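Hi R.,

Here's the chain you asked about this morning:
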Amino acid sequence: MSRLRLDPATWLWVIAGEARGLAPARAAGPGPADCPFCPAASLKEEALILQKEDDAGRWTVRVLADRAPVFHSKGELDRRGDGLYDHMATVGAHEIVVEGQVHDLRVGMLPVEIFEGTLEVCRDRIVALKQDPRLRYVEVFQLQGREAGALLLHPHAQILGAPMIPTRVERELRAAHTHYLAKERCLYCDLIRKESQEEARVVELTPEFLLLCPYASRYPYEMWLLPRQHNSSFEEAMKEPGALARLADVLASGLRRAEAITPSLSFVLHTEPNRSLPTWLREEWRSLPLDYHWHIEIVPRLRQPRKTLPPQEYFLNEVLPEDAARRLRGL
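And here is the predicted structure, written out as tokens:
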């Protein structure tokens, strides 16, 4: 049985041990006959969490419980200390969002109603999962293609409800908090103003969203999608009428641009943590609605650069963000 272990030197949580029920890796391109997400696949009743249907009664988007979850919905956190070390159970949620019935569509080519439906069910699942006080963070991400590590060809996103805040998100939160304490302004709002004025790294600008290549891009053609109106919470922002459709339009545009560079990509949604926190944590993050800013990060997954460096310690990006934005604007 796996456990979450905290590295006291880096504050990095690691899932250690055998993951219960974890399925072996499968090839990235099984046909519809053996695809678990296609309509012909057998589906246990308890696996279906949520389903959207069209006017004819055909399902368009499904949310399923992952058959081999990283985090398990049953059980207690069982937080323990062992001298210097801390560990807890891998309690949480792991769900799959199946995007339509067509087996081999790329995500950027999905029909607009499916794309908007995907964002809608992700919003609703984030809201539902945040009712669970065991969960500190809910993350939505998607992998496509071999270079991104996708195991199945059928378009699908994933939702993880975790009992801790991922390390990269926590670093974002702390950087935004430090900026706010010093200047009483949102770091991301300042970034949006500067990038909109300079335009060198802007890929697409609409009245509501900014799509850009970040100044210190970690990967070639990396893009961030940010709402121009401040909000720390994706799920709250997407309650506004028409918001889902407008986001779907810009996000699909960014994904199509990425797919013109390479068929392999990943994207991840970063939103605020669960506010159902212990009292001491609520006090620590009391300015979070003012200093954090939800956003989506899109990363085209190219082959590794010729020079290799220690993974996640140094990032070597051989394409300047300004050059990347210029090319992406023209796609």
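One quick note: Residues 174 and 292 are 9 Å apart (CA to CA).

Cheers,
M.
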